């Protein structure tokens, strides 16, 4: 078992020694056809244009306005209390300053 592991290790070491070293000094994880600076500039432009577009759409949408109603409809299930409270017009738990 140990000789099998040693033989396998020697084979992989020999295979690595025969393989040519990369010219750039390291392995690139992305495609070498793309330029990183070009991709960065492209996505910066896309981001800026997206932010400007969203800002303009939001400003246009907010400038249109919205309807205001005079009074809400009188729904019978609201049970609005229109008479005075027994303790007066002020709230029950408000702090009253009588100096």
UniProtKB/TrEMBL annotation:
Residues 1-34 are annotated as: Disordered. One of its GO terms (biological process) is mitochondrial electron transport, cytochrome c to oxygen. InterPro entries: Cyt_c_oxidase_su6a (IPR001349), Cyt_c_oxidase_su6a_sf (IPR036418). Its main location: mitochondrion. GO terms for molecular function: enzyme regulator activity. Transmembrane segments: none annotated. GO terms for cellular component: mitochondrial inner membrane. Residues 1-28 have a biased composition (Low complexity). Pfam families: COX6A. The keyword Membrane applies. Keywords: Membrane, Mitochondrion, Mitochondrion inner membrane, Transit peptide. It is found in: Mitochondrion inner membrane. Belongs to the cytochrome c oxidase subunit 6A family. This is Cytochrome c oxidase subunit 6a, mitochondrial. It comes from Aegilops tauschii subsp. strangulata.
